[in-house]
Design goal:
Helices cover about 45% and strands about 15% of the residues. By secondary structure, the protein is α/β, with parallel strands linked by helices. It has 2 domains: about 5-165 and about 360-375, 3-Layer(aba) Sandwich (Rossmann fold); about 175-360, Glycogen Phosphorylase B (Rossmann fold, 3-Layer(aba) Sandwich). The strands form 2 sheets. A 7-stranded parallel beta sheet has the order 3-2-1-4-5-6-7, with helices on both faces. The protein is elongated.
């Protein structure tokens, strides 16, 4: 008989992101199948989605501050004893140090998930990051992250790869109505009968919005963008200067009638649904690349840079395409090629993408694999 899991997940904030969404999905999954789950966090928008009758939320300053790391050893130790926690899971380095010592003192197993590559330019940073490898079990979010760990850290520890999962019911065409599509098109003033190319993602330089704008300008000046329209959707998260740079680029190239930058879209599946092609133009490797998986789940063809996680989740020529990262011409030429394909071909690629996600990147698959690790330790 499987022992009851009483899980404590520790994460700085529960805002929108891969680590945070993964934390939420695991908590919901455990609660659904009869286990107990608690989240220790400073706060965040995702907490509004949690049923607190099923998942315990413990609000506390989970910080990378050195003094709070020390103090939180005793906070976590207290919570382990109070809530009778029998396994902890950390997804960030600062809290991981606190949890490491608290779990050592209470003999409770500790699991960590390596969600990113982290900065490791100095020996001090390398040591700080190494706490993620000092746990009882280490999870890597992709093969790219696994290879990164073995390449840059001196460890012989066996590491499990559990690829991130998404909510395939939420990112589904069945979750979008025609009324929602028409409202969004009207709100964004999308021209009718245009081939719509969507670049989603938070506005930050490494997501490649500037590269995308350059590629659209390349196509327009070459007279190859007549029947197309481009849309960049994402929050600047306080990066106003960068957003202003993007807006100025659009003005400089006179793309106002060709490309729009938008934010404040409450339901991203609708934005995917009204689009004909999704682009992920990151100029640095994505640890996983949620856009590529979300696009496939929405049965949309995806064009992504040939870096990081997207090279694992996309099946070239079957569920999408890869272009040479940081190459304006290759991005532009790839977009042009795709816009010329027959709709039946694009629809077939979309269907294959959906199958790929259902088989490999669903949240339930991710959660069940994580539960296997918990069961092996408890």
């Amino acid at each position: 008989m499987t022992k009851k899991i009483n899980l404590l997940q520790i994460i700085p904030r529960m805002d929108v992101g891969g680590a945070e969404t993964g934390c939420l999905h695991v908590a919901e999954y455990l609660a659904r199948i009869g286990h107990k789950s608690f989240i220790l966090t400073s706060g965040g928008n995702l907490l509004n989605l949690i049923d607190r009758d099923k998942i315990g939320i413990l609000n506390w300053p989970v910080s990378k501050n050195f003094f709070m790391i020390i103090f939180n050893i005793f906070v976590i130790l207290f919570l382990i004893l109070l809530k009778r926690i029998n396994i902890c899971h950390v997804r960030s380095r600062g809290p991981a140090w606190s949890a490491y010592f608290a779990c050592k003192l209470t003999n409770v197993p500790l699991v960590s998930t390596f969600h990113g590559t982290y900065n490791f330019k100095s020996n001090t940073k390398l040591f700080y990051n190494s706490v993620m490898l000092r746990t009882n079990h280490v999870i890597a979010g992709s093969d790219y992250i696994l290879n990164h760990i073995y390449k840059n850290y001196k460890t012989e520890k066996k590491i499990s790869v559990i690829k991130r999962g998404i909510d395939t019911d939420y990112f589904s065409n069945k979750n979008v109505s025609e009324t929602e599509e028409n409202k969004l098109k009207e709100f964004l003033q999308i021209p009718k009968d245009k081939f719509l190319i969507l670049l989603p993602g938070r506005l930050t330089y490494w997501k490649g919005q500037k590269l995308f704008i350059e590629a659209i300008n390349f196509l327009k000046t070459s007279n190859k963008f007549k029947n197309c329209f481009a849309l960049i959707v994402g929050s600047d998260q306080g990066r106003k200067k960068y957003k202003d740079e993007l807006i100025n680029m659009v003005k400089k190239y006179n793309l106002q009638d060709t490309l729009k930058i938008a934010h404040g879209i409450n339901k991203m599946p609708v934005a995917y649904s009204i689009s004909n092609l999704i682009v992920s133009s990151s100029i640095e490797p994505e640890a996983f690349g949620r856009v590529s998986v979300e696009a496939q789940s929405m049965e949309k063809p995806i064009l992504a840079s040939n870096l990081g996680g997207s090279t694992e989740t996309i099946v070239p020529e079957k569920t999408g395409w890869l272009f040479r990262s940081e190459s304006v011409s290759d991005l532009a030429n790839s977009i042009e090629m795709i816009t010329k394909l027959d709709k039946k071909v694009l629809d077939a690629i979309g269907r294959q993408g959906r199958k790929n996600v259902l088989n490999n990147y669903s949240k339930d698959r991710m959660c069940s694999k994580t539960l296997e690790i918990y069961n092996s330790l408890v």
